[in-house]
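It would be a great kindness if you could assist me with a short task in structural biology. I am sending you one protein, given as its amino acid sequence and as whole-number tokens for its backbone shapes. I would ask you to consider whether the tokens describe a fold that such a sequence might reasonably adopt. The full record is reproduced below for your convenience.
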Amino acid sequence: MTSRSDATVPPTLSADAIDDALAAFSARVAHLRRQSGMTQEQLAARAGLEQSNLSKLERGDHRPLIDTVLRLQHALGLRSIEELFGDLPEPNAPTARLLGL
């Protein structure tokens, strides 16, 4: 049996890496919305969100909950939430790549 101290512990993401990922997500949502020809008001209505919250999300001033991510995926007609995040590193990528270094 493997003890807890012997188990491989995945690296933690730095606060900067998380902030960078959220900024990329926010920019991607805004890009996909504009690409689909929708205003913030239209996307917010389709996703069941307040326009002010969508605006904050697109500016990077709001951290979305998973239900918000799923609502945006559906409202934008995306097949998966991965499309909202763009290119993400593979799970087996080197630690430096996961940390955005």
